[in-house]
Amino acid sequence: MKKKALCLVLAALLAATVLAGCSQQASEPEAAMKAGTYKATAPGFYGDFEVSVTVDEKSILSIDIGENMETTGIGSTGLELMAERMKEYNTAGVDAVTGATMSSAALRVAVTDCLRQAGAPESMFKAPEIKKEAEKTIDTDVLVIGAGAAGLSASITAAQGGAKVTLIEKQDIIGGTTVLSAGIVYAALDEADMPKMVDYYMERANGNASREMLTYFAEHSLETIAFLEDAGVQWMMTAPAGTAPEPRARFSVGFTGYTITSALEKKAKDLGVTIMTGVKGTELITRDGAVVGAKATSAAGDYVFNAGAVVLATGGFDASPEMKSQYAPDSTNDFPLSNKGNVGEGIQMGMAVGADTVFKGGMIGFICVDATLSNSGQNSLAFASKCFVKKDGTFLGMHIDYPISHTLIKKSGESLVYGLMDSTGSQDGTNASGETAVSIGRGFKADTIEELAAAAGMDAAKLADAAGQAGLTTAPYYLVEVRPTTIGSMGGLKTNTKAEVLDKQGNPIPGLYAAGEVANGDFYDVEYPASGSSNGLAITFGRAAGTNAAEYVRK
To answer: What pLDDT score does 260 carry?
Structure first.
């Protein structure tokens, strides 16, 4: 018996010793890094750039990002936020910056390389543990969900109307789809042009649009231009867009949407708007049939926003395969070039509280070489096309405007066609777009149409016919790959000229407003009418949403 008891004691002592050893092993400090500055190359969105990381024995002291071509306000902002996160959590394993995932991933590659060079412990490559806080309740007069051009504009006008405004954005970067755009805003030339502008939109919509909504847009479009100028937006030129000859398209300085969104963001902050990024709206809160707030979530915790009114400005749905399959099946396989956060949750939130919708099956169609290319600037190569041909050389049609070309390709039933061009207009006897396409393996070049057809495996007679119809006569000749893609969606919540969301009986849902791609179905048929339309509509009706939401709260 004593022997058994002794064995038990020894076993217990042995177990304790083993556990102590394990505990001692677990608590042993990880190997120290070799202090210094290390360099590595990051594979950027528009080309490689250098990154320098300075460390001591335990921590990341600084991350210096070299000169790069990442998109201003998107990739560049993503790099800054990513570097801050890495330093804060002392690891390269932080989450990517939403809205700039490719730039974030590029920086992670370079910082990881630098830390490996320094002999960093494995903990500095792992995701940090972020504890969620208890649910927070925030009171505000007007809650705006989505910080693109529509949401920023709504926030500004609501604040100007005296409301306390909170703007939440699920991504880490402000700007929505507008920040990815070319920064074009469509508006009437003057008061006399407003009816003509409405007629143009109705013509492009084949009469299948709301003349009332388009009239409001046209009649308030010059106010939108003044609103943007007041925020600091400057224009570099005006030009025609779509098929209308009038130069209604205003091109912002820099030919980038960041010119617009950065100015609006600054204006909103100057007016006291509270902007919260990384916070995703999930559900509208209703009481007695009225919208009185929303629920939201973030990496840090959940929120309940009590609000007098809510503005939905969450963008469209062209990044949602499920919603495209349901509401725009012809474009289901078109890769989206718009904001990847456009998955339609705002539309679904509105529908969940009884909102009516408008869907006609169209999308904001675009053309590109290949939307999955890491360097998106190469997508513009498709725009040099004089005409389009099928893979066997059959003539499809002339390149007039990108939405029309998108429709042309979709009707052909082809997922890949070719843009045909020559060297007309070039100063050095070559076509820059054609040369680039050939250099990246996305096109063909030859001195004769017959040789071009042979290189591409096409019927020489058919390709010659296409070249004749397009009037191409100046060698060398080029064929460039062209695919249909999308830069936004058409269709969503039904609204009126006050930007109030309507129920299925046509009545406003009290306290609920919407603007932008989340509610653009009444402005189009199935083909986008002109560059700058989406920005112009978003800002015009965003202004209306904010103004009327603030007035609703006052009353």
So the answer is: 98
Neighbouring C-beta atoms of residue 299, cutoff 10 Å:
10
pTM of the prediction?
0.91
Query: Scanning the structure block, which residue is given the tokens 């004749």?
Result: 468
Helix (H) or strand (E) holding 421: strand 417-421
C-alpha span between 147 and 173 (Å, rounded): 9
Q: What is the pLDDT of residue 29?
A: 52
Q: Residue 395 in contact with residue 385, Cβ under 8 Å?
A: no
Structure tokens at 109: 């590659």
Whole-number Å distance between alpha carbons of 544 and 555: 16
Beta strand pairing call for 357-358 and 492-493: antiparallel
Alpha helices in 205-251 (DSSP H): 211-231
Q: Return the residue matching tokens 């029309």.
A: 404
CA dist 453 → 381, 450, 458 (Å):
20, 5, 5
What average pLDDT score do residues 106-120 get?
A: 96
Sheet holding 60-65: strands in order across? 36-44, 47-55, 60-65
List alpha helices for 447-527, DSSP H: 449-456, 460-470
Residue 499 near residue 514, CB atoms below 8 Å? yes
| More confident: 9 or 442 | 442
CB-based burial of residue 400 (10 Å sphere; 0-12 exposed, 13-18 middle, 19+ buried)?
Answer: exposed
Is the distance from CB of 131 to CB of 115 less than 8 angstroms? no
